[in-house]
Prior knowledge:
Layout: H1 2-5, E1 8-12, E2 29-33, E3 35-41, E4 44-49, H2 50-57, E5 62-66, H3 81-98, E6 105-108, H4 110-120, E7 126-135, E8 138-139, H5 153-161, E9 165-172, H6 175-179, H7 182-187, E10 188-195, E11 200-207, E12 212-215, H8 221-224, H9 235-252, H10 262-268, E13 276-277, E14 286-289
Parallel strand pairs: 2-5, 6-12
Antiparallel strand pairs: 1-2, 1-6, 3-4, 4-14, 7-9, 8-10, 10-11, 11-12, 13-14
Helix pairs in contact: 3-4
The structure holds 2-acetamido-2-deoxy-beta-D-glucopyranose (2 copies).
Main location: secreted
Active site: 109 (nucleophile), 218, 218 (proton donor)
Organism: Pundamilia nyererei
Amino acid sequence: MCLLLLCVFLSCLPFYLSAQTDRQNEKPIIGVLAQDVYLPQPSQTAYIAASYVKFLESAGARVVPVMILYPGGGVSIVSSGYERAAKIFYELAIEANKRGDYFPVWGTCLGFEQLMYLTSKNTILAYTNTSGAALPLNFTNAEDSRMFKGFPAQLMKDLASEPLTVNSHKWSLGMLTYNTNEELKKFYKVLSVNTDGNVEFVSTVEAYDYPIYGTQWHPEKNAFEWTRPSIPHSPSAVKTTFYMAEFFVNEARKNFHKFETEEGESKALIYNYNPVYTGTKSAFEQIYFF
Ligand SMILES: *[C@@H]1O[C@H](CO)[C@@H](O)[C@H](O)[C@H]1NC(C)=O
Ligand SMILES: *[C@@H]1O[C@H](CO)[C@@H](O)[C@H](O)[C@H]1NC(C)=O
């Protein structure tokens, strides 16, 4: 249950394209996929942890919650509503990008695992002892990555030497699996790896030919979540949250989809909902329920 509650998948929404590649969209809106609530109650069937929303807002984006339209028992990456919704966005993004319509997608934790599954069409995860582990990143190809190119040199040094990235998962994509899976190898460049002392696993990726990104760790937690002692809050840890958010929001600024009407936009924004303080009983300080 922990794994499932700690993760989300983000993507830009395919509303309308006005192809302008030399400009920036200074009003990016990013869709965040809601997840099924483990024990649903009336008016609480899906949720988004507020830290994902704050993460994006802190770098200048607005958020629209994306509801899962299919009832699904539990969140599985193989057969849940989350999986179906993620698959729809993943395929829309691939198609859009092939047409030259820049359509970024981000997966965190479960979202990362979901992306790996969608690319390889295979359940390929290995058990790791990583529920509640802050780790330094073991960078592999970061110097020529899009993701880390704009990071300050000192922050890159800190990321490589201090435990600034918090892991809240029990299942991981082993390097061994990545190295022996042609689909994954062709599609994703591995930017960092980590180990639980036993299994080496992929911790950060970017797609070679698409603006598709994934982290097995949680960049949003350092600045916004306080419920677990493993979450780092040092100045470098908080900068990590911000530079990751800034990177992805800048990617979203290259996308010009928009709502057809202002009314449609204002009705869809997450501002229509209020987060609830849940820090005393959940891993998240605040949660949006739908
Ligand atoms: C899992 O990792 C923690 C440290 O993060 C360690 O204390 C614990 O002994 C490990 N458990 C196993 C079964 O290896
Ligand atoms: C970092 O990853 C490389 C490549 O897998 C590995 O050879 C090396 O031992 C790792 N370094 C650390 C400090 O874990």
